[in-house]
Amino acid sequence: MIYLDSAATSFHKPEAVADAVYNAIRHMGNSGRGGHTASLSAARVIYGTRKKIANLFGVSDPAQVVFTANSTQSLNMTIQGLFHAGDHVITTAMEHNSVLRPLYRKEQQEGVSLSILPCDACGTVRYDLLEEYLQPNTKGIVCTHASNVTGNMVDIVRIGAFCKKHNLYFVVDASQTAGVFSIDMEQMGIDVLCFTGHKSLMGPQGTGGLCLQKEITLPCFCVGGSGVQSYRKIHPEEMPTHLEAGTLNGHGIAGLSAALDWITETGMDNIRAQEQKHMRMFYEAVRQIPQIKIYGDFSQSERAPIVTLNIGDNPAEEVCDALAERYDIATRGGAHCAPLMHQHFQTETQGAVRFSFSYFNTEEEIQTAIQAVREIAEEWT
Ligand SMILES: Cc1ncc(COP(=O)(O)O)c(C=O)c1O
After folding, report:
1. Whose CB has fewer CB within 10 Å in the chain, the N or C terminal residue?
2. Average pLDDT value for residue range 188-198
3. What angle do CA 78, 94, 338 make, to 5 degrees?
4. Predicted pLDDT at 45
5. What percent of the chain clears pLDDT 70, i.e. is strictly above it?
6. Where do you find CATH 3.40.640.10 in the chain?
7. Whose CA is nearest to atom 12 of ligand 1?
8. 15-266 is classed in which CATH architecture?
């Protein structure tokens, strides 16, 4: 199979990730739930991973790194905890449902008001409207670092500076960029960073987390076993236990730890350069095909390694099926859980075909994909 669906999940993981999960399953006890070697070794792996995540995202205290199951959980915990009745929140039309649905729920159930920054023709946020959207009760901005539909990046330094200036919370969804694009919470003015472990961080599914600036406190999303203060009726206030009730996904976190080591050894810049090369090679070739419509801004010097397109008026899912059945190429059609982006491009009915690239793809695979698109386009239009 030629796997071009890395924006959904990274499929070719570093070998060390699988080894680490296997070893953890064989040897890991429950972190923080005992003083024996198996429990202590789990605690060491988990703390070590917290430190690596803290280093990666410019977090000074590893206790401010909280493990969750994925960015959806992290975004729910954050949005649920930060915004309340009477608050106004700004988000963008580039968002995934993991941002939109928790915000819509707040709007419906608690009367939080919401403004959605529109995009320009290429699907990039209209930064010029930020000031206009600001209200006296605006409490924060929640936005993605890169669109999972187009690959367009959001200038989070610019939005971070805007948030600082107006004393707003800044929550960033780094699902499509963590591990490949440099993120420094301090420098970028990010208050809460939500990440998922199984995409560009190359870890196992079921891993993810959020990083919080020290002055931000979130209520417990869930309470229960903590391994400490067991006779108290309330869940501990100390971070990260405050936001981590129940046994952590230690086996997955061990895999994430190995993935973080692999990123450091390979070099984030090398990984990104390779992915950009694959994306550009594909884009430059398919854009020459007359029947192809491509969505997104390719004038951005760096973007998430995604090319989303349609072939004439053909339904995206049918194109994906043809790519899979005839060429064994894995892509993703449909709405990509990002309804506003598709409404913006008027592709709600047709959907769009997303090709997303990885460090592990080969140039031969990219050439095969280009040829496949060319052949389908010639036959179907
Ligand atoms: C931009 C963006 N945000 C959030 C998510 C949700 O990630 P997860 O399913 O790992 O929680 C995704 C996954 O597709 C995404 O692309």
Report:
1. N
2. 98
3. 85
4. 96
5. 100
6. 15-266
7. 175
8. 3-Layer(aba) Sandwich (3.40)
CB 88 within 8 A of CB 135: yes
**Model confidence pLDDT, tens digit, residues 78-105:** 999 999 999 999 999 999 999 999 999 9
Mean pLDDT to the nearest integer, 330-334:
97
Nearest CA to ligand 1 atom 14: 8
The residues of the chain that CATH labels 3.90.1150.10 are 267-380
Q: How many CB atoms lie within 10 A of CB 215?
A: 6
Report CA(196)–ligand 1 centroid distance (Å): 7
Nearest to 50 by CA among 164, 166, 212: 212
Spacing, Cα 87 to ligand 1 middle (Å): 25
* pTM as predicted: 0.97
CA neighbor of 93 nearest in space, from 352, 316, 368, 346? 346
The pLDDT of residue 170 is 98
Selection from 139, 95, 137 nearest residue 118 by Cα: 95
> Which residues, judged by CB distance below 6 Å to any ligand atom, belong to the binding site of ligand 1?
70-72, 96, 98, 144, 148, 173, 175-176, 196, 208, 337
User: How many Å lie between the centroid of ligand 1 and the Cα of residue 194?
Assistant: 10
Residue 32 confidence (pLDDT) = 83
Query: What confidence score (pLDDT) does residue 35 get?
Result: 86
User: Domain 267-380 is classified in which CATH homologous superfamily?
Assistant: Aspartate Aminotransferase, domain 1 (3.90.1150.10)
